[in-house]
Amino acid sequence: MNKADLIEAVAKEAGLSKRAAGDAIDSVISNVTKTLKKGGEVTLIGFGTFGISKRAARTGRNPQTGATIKIKAKKVPRFRAGAALKKAVA
Questions:
Q1: Count of structural domains within the chain
Q2: Are residues 78 and 59 part of one domain?
Q3: Residues with Cβ < 8 Å from 85, sequence gap 6 or more?
Q4: What is the mean pLDDT of residues 49-76?
Q5: Domain around 10
Q6: Mean pLDDT score, 59-78
C-alpha cells in the first residue's frame, strides 16, 4: 500500500473526501516528524511508538576499495510495534 492507496482507504472508511483524508494523513505525518525532531516520542496506544535512537560513531569499510572509513554518530527514527498490532499481524 502506498500513500495514495492509504488516502483512498481512509476516505472511504471515514466517509471523507480524498482531499480531507489526504490533509489529515499529511497532518499526522507532519506532527510526528516535528515531535521526533524535538526529541520526543509519539505513542499510539495499540499501534506503536515512534521515537529516536542514537547510533554511535563507528568504523566501516568501503566495499570497493577495502579502505577503512569513519562513520559519524547520528540520530535515527525508530518504530516499536504495540501489542495489539503484533497480535493482529501474527
A1: 2
A2: yes
A3: 46, 47, 48
A4: 96
A5: 1-38
A6: 95
